Amino acid sequence: MTAHPRAGLATLLLVAAVSAGVARAESDATIEGIEKYREALRDGNPAELFEAQGEELWKKPAGPKSVSLETCDLGMGPGVVAGAYAHLPRYFADTDKVQDAESRILTCMATLQGVDVKKYVDARWTSPEKDELVALATYVSGQSKGVKVAASATHPKERAMFDLGKRMFYFQGGPHDFSCATCHGQEGARIRLQDLPNIPTQKGAAAGWTSWPAYRVSSGQMWSMQWRLADCFRQQRFPEPIYGSDVTVALSMFMAATANGATMDTPGIKR
Amino acid sequence: MGNPMKIRATAKDGVTEVKVLMSHEMETGFRKDSSGNPIPAWFIAEVTAKLDGKDVMKAQWGPSISKNPYLSFKIKGGAAGGKVAITWVDSKGDSRTDQATIA
Fold it and tell me: B72 vs A49: CB contact, 8 Å cut-off?
């Protein structure tokens, strides 16, 4: 009689082992399926349409001074766009500030074109003003596709920004007691089909930093890094950060400097 | 008028592969705006492809096609230097034509 329960247990264990194997095979097939879907999306990224739009905006005289943004200094000298995004955020002596691509574009709009940028900063996402900024950021980022990320973080202000970004990343609060690290501080996590990069690691920071701005297929929207960050704040139930504010630049500085050495793959595409 | 399309065409072994990105809202007509009013349908209804001035494809589209659609197809024939022209007509009667040279 004693043999029977044991045989039963062995069978159970065997069944358990087999079903675990099935579960693993299933998740492998799921991941493979996701990869195939991503591959299909990559071929014909609508972000190209926004890049073209941004290029037009960049080169078209606009604002009260009727000047184009072509002489904008993105850190590589006036008028140099190629590779600039990969070196941002960085310290700019003229504004005495560390700036990312988007806050720098605002500076250029204000100084070169004489535009009142407050309207652009305050405008809601999906407003024509923000659409313009996102298109410009998409164009600028596209000019760094294939360039290695090289954010310096050597200037004292850059170091301070990096540290502030790191602090913000681990800052826990809000009604859900969330921090960025809650979702982005572990390996192998994902929300639905999107892998969540482990941002404090070089690989994780690279996965995030090098793929935004990105076109989001599900919403048909082009998102810049500022929009991505603002929405991360929303998901944490934090107050929405001001567009181009120090805390957003700091988070970008933290990501970019951690991702150093990776290759820009912008503009990206997401589900 | 609409925004410009992005067209890429490459010829290989007597077959031309065409890839087109179109910029369009592709509104289904089933959605409502923030005040609850239905957003009228507005989508690309017809797509025509021409190779060197000759019709090679006609497609009838509907509201189930995504926003900013991507279309890829192959044509028998065509050689480097030839012209591929794509025209869309949307449900409001607006249309746009763009052309690309085969690489």
Answer: no
Global ipTM: 0.74
Interface membership of A56 toward B (CB under 8 Å): no
The torsion angles phi and psi of A242, rounded to 5 degrees, stand at -70, 140
Do A28 and A92 lie in a common domain?
no
pLDDT tens digits for range B27-42: 999 999 889 999 999 9
Alpha helices in chain A (DSSP H): 3-42, 47-59, 101-111, 118-122, 128-142, 156-170, 180-184, 202-209, 225-235, 246-258
Contact B19 A44 (CB under 8 A): yes
Tokens encoding A39: 């591959």
pLDDT per residue over A129-182, tens digit each?
999 999 999 999 999 999 999 998 899 999 999 999 999 999 999 899 999 999
- Locate tokens 């992005």: which residue? B6
CATH 2.60.40.10 at B6-101, yes or no = yes
Angle between helices A101-111 and A128-142 (to 10 degrees): 110
